[in-house]
Amino acid sequence: MKKVVHVAVGVIKSLDGRILVAKRPKHTHMGGLWEFPGGKVEVGETLEEALSRELVEEVGIGFEHCQPLIQITHAYSDKTVLLDTLVVSGLTGQAHGREGQAIQWVMPDELNTLSFPEANKAIITAAQLPEHYMITGQFSRLEELLDNVSHQLARGIRLVQFRAPWLSEQEYLHSAQQLQERVTDLGGKLLVKGGKSMLAQPWCQGIHLRASQLYASERWSAFRRQGQLLAASCHNEQELALAADHDVDFVTLSPVKHTKTHPEKEPLGMQQARRLTRVSSRPVYWLGGLDQTDREAARSSGAQGVAAIGAYWPPH
Q: Which sign does the torsion angle of CA 172, 175, 181, 187 carry?
């Protein structure tokens, strides 16, 4: 059995939104690749204590605030690493490479241009995703859809899922394309409920899979183009594992609480939602009976944030 190395990782954010990365020395394991600062958790240390010590030793900074982001277990040929990632803010000191390593402050989108160890892929995604994931609700006219989404984008929403199962295939495709143009123009990103044919659309920025689609034998990631996002709905540990097998970028976990739309479904509850969030190898949005006031509870439990319909959609 491979040894498991517990590592504290810091996604260190400046006031202007940039993230600190450092280059691993050539003589070390995976030398020459970029990484998020951090290091091994020593016996008797808490995660926060280990990260505080490592950041002082590596880049000469302290921090006032931190919160869980994502926990990743990744097996290399020679060892398995457990990456416990915290978002760090309220910085003190001036960052510099105390061990002679190069450092950079980069915008989240620039992380994709740097070479990181494979285990860092989900951390990069989590660092780039917003805390809110809006799902469209009931509408009767295209203009109503566009107006409601535009209103939320003006309030800061940056990630939207389009679903409208009552529309015909032609109406659905037309509405999705029109909404994609609007969301892009206003600085957001749109995912659409759909399948391979939707991914093939040149305007499509990504799709959100139903849980039933995760049982397909072919990997969904094989059908997407570079830059397209792939997400999935999950309700249990098996579906989280299937989502990872399909190499999705993130998942929704539901229902966390009782919902009006699916009152017959037994909710996971906060304790189970926390447990499943911790075992997921992908960023998780909590969904089901939640609103924006639940964001902090989700974030403190290691979730990316909250996904919702009712919190962002006016009653129809």
A: negative
Query: Tens of pLDDT along 30-77?
Result: 768 999 999 999 999 999 999 999 999 999 999 999 988 888 887 777
SS3 content of the chain, % helix, strand, coil (to 5): 30, 25, 40
What's the pTM value of the predicted model, to 2 decimals? 0.89
Tokens of 148: 């409601």
Q: What is the pLDDT of residues 64-117, one digit of tens each?
A: 999 888 888 877 777 788 889 999 999 999 999 998 899 999 999 999 999 998
Tokens encoding 202: 């040149």
Residue 229 CA to its chain's centroid (Å): 11
Q: What confidence category does residue 2 fall into, taking pLDDT thresholds of 50, 70 and 90? A: low
- CA torsion 280-312-176-283 (nearest 10°) is -10
Statement: residue 1 has pLDDT above 60: no
Q: Provide the terminal-to-terminal Cα distance of the chain, rounded to the nearest Å.
A: 56
DSSP 240: H
Token code pair at residue 118: 């494979």
> What type of residue sits at position 54?
E
- Candidates 235, 237, 245, 249; CA nearest to 288 is 235
Residue 260 has phi, psi (to 5 degrees) of -70, -30
Rounded Cα distance, 136 and 148, in Å: 9
What is the rounded CA–CA span in Å between residue 278 and residue 301? 8
Extract long-range pairs of 214-221: CB within 8 Å, 24+ residues apart: 214/239, 214/242, 214/243, 214/246, 215/242, 216/246, 219/245, 219/246, 219/247, 220/246, 220/247, 220/248, 221/246, 221/247, 221/248
In the structure, what pLDDT confidence band is assigned to residue 265 with cuts at 50, 70 and 90?
Answer: confident
Overall residue count recorded for the chain in this entry: 316
